[in-house]
Amino acid sequence: MRLAAKRQPEMALQGFEVGEAEHLFCDGRQFEVVRLGRGKPIVLVPGLAGGWRLLAPLARRLSARSEVILIGLRGDRAPLAGAGGQTLGDYAHDLDMLIERLGLERPLVFGVSFGGAVALELATQYPARLGSLVVQGVEARFRTSLGSTIARSVLERFPLPSDNGFLNQFFNLLHGGRPEPGPLTDFVVERCWETDQGVMARRLQALESFDVSDRLWRIDVPTLILAGSRDVIVPVARQRALADAIPGARFEVIEGAGHIGFLTHRADVARHVHRLAHDRPRSPC
After folding, report:
1. Share above pLDDT 90 across residues of the chain, in percent, rounded to a whole number
2. Which residues make beta-bridge pairs with 36?
3. Helix, strand, or coil here: 26?
4. How many CB atoms lie within 10 A of CB 173?
5. Which helix (H) or strand (E) holds 25?
6. Residue ranges of the domains in the chain?
7. Among residues 28, 106, 161, 217, which is most buried (max CB within 10 A)?
């Protein structure tokens, strides 16, 4: 499946062939799943917006040494019209069912941003489902801010054009500063706007009650916390605190990366993930 056929010259970022998405039904919902590569399985869980397509460049790099499974979240396939009250636990339940349905035995689960919160919920609710854990751009609990409150209110109430230059400046924060104009910047904006804004609002609402700070002790698998040194959405100190609260967790800073370091610095991210994926498993107690 070509992610951006209309921009053929930008093959380095957008023209990844990742195979056809498989449509799976779980609990009455349809999910998109894409698998590529061979080796130890790595499940990638996408963030608030952009879906699995935003993770495709990282998936391609990881697939050189591993089997990569890109998972679509509820709402990615179709807007959740009229559906409210979802929690991060509901998203974790979806992920648990999909991993079982796909026949994956304790895979490495890697979640970014909102997907990182989903992965943490999975690891604390269903600790036997995964073999190792990687998260980037997340902390143990969501801190509601004036900015997040305004963002959810706007997304819920006002239809927004995808070419609104003022609003698209928000995406610059994801880079940790104003990025150079070009294919990468366009790629991020275009992929994020593919997510229905109502879905974004509901995910922000779900985040408002996210808190696993009192359950992190349940995580008993090799864990890696990755943080971009220029992440202004979830600062490095908060991500370091998450790592300190998980027994035995490893913490790594990606220098120069912002909140979407998994895309802008994917070679560094892939190196750290492969290191964890190919570590020898812990000996049974």
Report:
1. 55
2. 68
3. strand
4. 16
5. strand 22-26
6. 21-277
7. 106
- Sequence letter at residue 206: A
Contacts of 195 (CB under 8 A, 6+ apart): 48, 49, 50, 51, 75, 76
Which conformational region is residue 184 in: left (phi greater than 0), alpha (psi within -120 to 50 degrees), or beta? Answer: alpha
**DSSP one-letter string for 63-122:** TTTSEEEEEPPTTTSS--TT-----HHHHHHHHHHHHHHTT--S-EEEEETHHHHHHHHH
**Structural contact between residues 124 and 216, judged by C-beta atoms closer than 8 angstroms:** yes
When pLDDT is averaged across residues 79-91 and rounded to a whole number, the result is 71
Between CA 141 and CA 214 the distance in angstroms is: 10
In this structure, the number of other CB atoms found within 10 A of the CB of residue 150 comes to 10
3-state DSSP call for residue 183?
helix
Q: Which fold has domain 21-277?
A: Rossmann fold (3.40.50)
CB-side neighbour CA atoms (13 Å) of 170: 12
Distance from C-alpha of 221 to C-alpha of 216, rounded to nearest angstrom: 11
Strands 29-36 vs 22-26: parallel, antiparallel or unpaired: antiparallel
Mean pLDDT of 110-138: 96
